[in-house]
Amino acid sequence: MNAADLPFKIDWSSRSKMRGPGEQSVGEMLRKLRDQLVPKAEGISISYVDDRTMRKLNREHRGINMTTDVLSFPAKPGKGEFQHLGDLVVSLPVAEKMAKKLGVSRRREVQTLLIHGFLHLCGYDHETDQGEMMEMQARLEKDVLGEAPLAMTLKRGRKAGSKVKVLKDGRRVVVTGRAAVALARSAKTGKAKQPKEKPEKVAKEAKRGPGRPRKNAPAPAPKRPPRRKAMRPRGGVIA
Question: Beta partners for 86?
């Protein structure tokens, strides 16, 4: 049996209200990555989380007190042990935000994040290399997904003035120029005008305030002290 023919177990978990792509959507992609990069690997864990959990993990393991898109935790199994490649943690809120900026689906964005994290598990590091990791990532997106690679940076986004247009089939596309201006104008005019509420009339006395007391006004009658009621014993209760 070839190393690439070994079974590849994928453990899925989610701690987010959003729904991330699972076995049917990205399982085959992950196995293709294993076959090309680490054919001896036998398993990997994928976890989807919210921004709160991702921020906590990023703070504890990297000393950065902010959320991020994906974190990779490589495993180091010994000889003869189950060859677990490692754990990938993806923030679905960040993925959703980036997907909207790029005009793609959440699944497409998560695919890019999983490829990026997978390369980290294999030992690649774009922060220390000379661009080899990002070149490898772009090639894998073309080969494995058959699509153009997406940018990998939290600052990525659309051109100034561009808008995201939702097509009839639900897909999102980025439009610029006149199309973006027309989309913004239609969105603005399409909003129903809310009727303005008329401010309630304020009494003249309230506007004038308490004012000065009138002259020769009778003195107010002295208030009688309130009568004290007899205290009843409360059985077994201490307030």
Answer: 74
CB atoms inside a 10 Å sphere around CB 129: 12
Helix (H, G, I), strand (E, B) or coil at 90: strand
Which domains are assigned to the chain?
Answer: 3-154 (3.40.390.30), 158-189 (no CATH)
* Measured distance CA(239)–CA(231) in Å, rounded: 15
User: Maximum distance among all alpha carbons in the chain?
Assistant: 112
Residue written as token pair 């590849």: 8
Query: Nearest CA to 85 among 20, 34, 36?
Result: 34
pTM over 0.70: no
Query: What confidence tens digit (pLDDT) does each residue in 112-171 have?
Result: 999 999 999 999 999 899 999 999 999 999 999 999 999 876 454 445 556 666 667 555
